[in-house]
């Protein structure tokens, strides 16, 4: 265990491979040999913009946070894992003592050490040190590639199961058919939703959503010249309700809207189509300030909630649903790259398709010396 090649972001549009020391581990930690890492919009955003909200890249940082790997070394006090265990990694280590941690909402911990969120290094390296209790053993029939997908799936599970508290037989509309939106649809189906409506402005994404987990798909119309966003959203919501037979109340009403797009018009439309007393969960990060129809929100007594990352219990539920065959992660991995091709993986994710024209849902980078075709 002498070398630790790492994929490092030095500044905007500036990435290099560095040979870094093999990390030391504390007594409660394990050292993971990282085998598979999915590329997320946030990783690409740091590469392109050097920041997300208050998180600014000020010193070189290893990228990557959606990972799975094999335990290479265990700390003196670790009893739950052994060398050779195949695990999915929660990429955020929490402080365990603050109010948020103690009240069971550790995603809100102010002292979170989150992989590839400045100033903390990410997982695109041969080795990554991590507390043992946030590593989850994978059943033998799941691959390490499935394991890397548990992070975005847990983000979806958090929104749908935990924040929204979806119940069987409820109706769900998901705005945005990117990776997290698709996983929200899959989570809703797995948890017994009777109706899962996919909304996106890109027809081929909708087509995929329909084949993957959605029961219906809706393509919004183009805005008219001079139409304000809120007037457009009102028109769009009306059309959507007519087209799909959505009522304001009763069995054909929408119990839960999840916005996984971050687009202002999607959020506005979602608030208008949600049923009275329904739930709206904001998951997509888009423009930081938007106009919302607040009177509609209050007269319908909507539960308008934010959802950030994942929390306690989300990883185990994600792994269980995939293990039971209720969610299939394989169709979402569209592109695979070797460790040496990390730059190409980022470029492909950024452009949204590879040179052969194939659209990207999720690109996965293998660890050093691991073949991209071996899902492990
Ligand atoms: Zn992510
Ligand atoms: Zn904390």
What does this molecule look like?
This protein is α/β, with parallel strands linked by helices and 376 residues long. It has two domains: 5-137 and 329-366, Alpha-Beta Complex (Quinone Oxidoreductase, Chain A, domain 1); 156-306, NAD(P)-binding Rossmann-like Domain (Rossmann fold, 3-Layer(aba) Sandwich). Helices cover 28% and strands 26% of the residues. The chain has helices at 41-49, 99-102, 144-163, 179-190, 203-212, 229-244, 264-273, 294-299, 314-323, 342-351; strands at residues 4-11, 14-20, 29-38, 51-52, 55-56, 61-62, 66-74, 86-89, 92-93, 113-114, 127-131, 135-137, 171-175, 195-199, 216-218, 254-259, 274-282, 303-306, 333-337, 362-366. Strands 3, 7, 8, 11, 12, 19 and 20 form a seven-stranded mixed β-sheet that branches. Helix 3 crosses helix 4 (179-190), helix 3 crosses helix 9 and helix 6 packs across helix 7. The longest helix has 20 residues, at 144-163. It is globular. The structure holds zinc ion (ZN) (2 copies). One zinc ion is lined by residues 94-95, 98, 100-101, 109, 111. Keywords: Metal-binding, NAD, Oxidoreductase, Zinc. GO terms for molecular function: L-iditol 2-dehydrogenase (NAD+) activity; zinc ion binding. This is Xylitol dehydrogenase.
What is the fold's blueprint, element by element?
Elements: E1 4-11, E2 14-20, E3 29-38, H1 41-49, E4 51-52, E5 55-56, E6 61-62, E7 66-74, E8 86-89, E9 92-93, H2 99-102, E10 113-114, E11 127-131, E12 135-137, H3 144-163, E13 171-175, H4 179-190, E14 195-199, H5 203-212, E15 216-218, H6 229-244, E16 254-259, H7 264-273, E17 274-282, H8 294-299, E18 303-306, H9 314-323, E19 333-337, H10 342-351, E20 362-366
Parallel strand pairs: 13-14, 13-16, 14-15, 16-17, 17-18, 19-20
Antiparallel strand pairs: 1-2, 1-6, 3-7, 3-11, 3-20, 4-5, 7-8, 8-12, 9-10
Helix pairs in contact: 3-4, 3-9, 6-7
One zinc ion (ZN) binds next to helix 2.
GO molecular function, one term: zinc ion binding
Cofactor: Zn(2+)
Family: Belongs to the zinc-containing alcohol dehydrogenase family.
């Amino acid at each position: 265990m002498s070398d630790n090649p790492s994929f490092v972001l030095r500044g905007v549009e500036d990435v290099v491979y560095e040979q870094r020391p093999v990390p030391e581990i504390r007594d409660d930690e394990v050292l993971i040999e990282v085998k598979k890492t999915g590329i997320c919009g946030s990783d690409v955003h740091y590469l392109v913009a050097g920041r997300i909200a208050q998180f600014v890249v000020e010193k070189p940082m290893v990228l990557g946070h959606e990972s799975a790997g094999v335990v290479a070394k265990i700390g003196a006090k670790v009893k739950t894992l052994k060398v050779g265990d195949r695990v999915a990694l929660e990429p955020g280590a929490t402080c365990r003592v603050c109010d948020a941690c103690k009240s069971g909402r550790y995603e809100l911990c102010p002292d979170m050490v989150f992989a590839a969120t400045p100033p903390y290094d990410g997982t695109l390296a041969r080795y990554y040190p991590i507390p043992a209790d946030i590593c989850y053993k994978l059943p033998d029939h799941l691959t390490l590639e499935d394991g890397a997908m548990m992070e975005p799936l847990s983000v979806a599970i958090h929104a749908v199961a935990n924040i929204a508290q979806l119940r069987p037989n409820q109706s769900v509309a998901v705005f945005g058919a990117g990776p997290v939106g698709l996983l929200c649809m899959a989570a809703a189906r797995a948890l017994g939703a009777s109706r899962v409506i996919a909304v996106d402005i890109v027809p081929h994404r909708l087509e995929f959503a329909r084949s993957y987990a959605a029961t219906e798909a809706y393509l919004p119309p183009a805005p008219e010249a001079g139409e304000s966003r809120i007037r457009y959203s009102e028109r769009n919501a009306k059309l959507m309700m007519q087209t799909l037979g959505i009522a304001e109340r009763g069995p054909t009403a929408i119990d839960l809207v999840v916005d996984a797009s971050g687009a202002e018009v999607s959020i506005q439309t979602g608030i208008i189509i949600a049923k009275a007393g329904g739930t709206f969960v904001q998951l997509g990060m888009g423009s930081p300030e938007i106009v919302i129809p607040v009177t509609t929100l209050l007269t319908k007594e909507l539960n308008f909630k934010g959802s950030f990352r994942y929390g306690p219990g989300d990883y185990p539920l994600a792994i269980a649903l995939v293990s039971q065959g209720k969610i299939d992660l394989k169709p979402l991995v569209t592109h695979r790259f070797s460790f040496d091709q990390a730059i190409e993986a980022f470029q492909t994710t950024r452009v949204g398709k590879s040179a052969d024209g194939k659209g990207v849902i999720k690109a996965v980078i293998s660890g050093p010396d691991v073949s991209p075709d071996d899902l492990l």
